[in-house]
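One record is set out below.
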Amino acid sequence: MSTSARDMAIFYHYAWKNPTFAQIVGTDEYKFPGYQDNPGWPIGNDNGLLMNDPDGIGGKTGFTSDANHTFVGAKKVGNRRIAAVILDTTVDKGRPWQQAQKLIDDNRNVTAKCWGASPTRRCGRSGIAALLGVRHAQPPANSGSSCQQW
């Protein structure tokens, strides 16, 4: 069984709408409740985007031998949440949260040039990449800087 970046982006899109989920992944530490006679314990958040970027709003890190390093995270940009999904990566060009941060920041800069007064305008596939998951780190060569209504 495998999960695509788009699958993860859709999952987290809906998960972030749940206030309890958003509070937990956006918190440095969460006290997990105990059960029966067992006391609760703290769970620490190791999400580098949340911890190191003032606009970071949480997500999930991961590693398996099949998937390598993975990361789902988001930043609050104005009234928008821009998310990135990183799957099957290595750390030679930065930690996965740093790769996501760069993807979000680079795409935010591209989309900001097109948005103008309308929040429903996006620039080509690059603007969509940061919203739906990793597709293109750069706009496709033939996309130019034209905007599309979405």
Residues 115-150 have pLDDT under 50 and may be disordered. The beta strands are 29-32, 41-44, 56-64, 68-77, 80-89, 121-123, 147-149. The chain is about 35% helix and 30% strand.
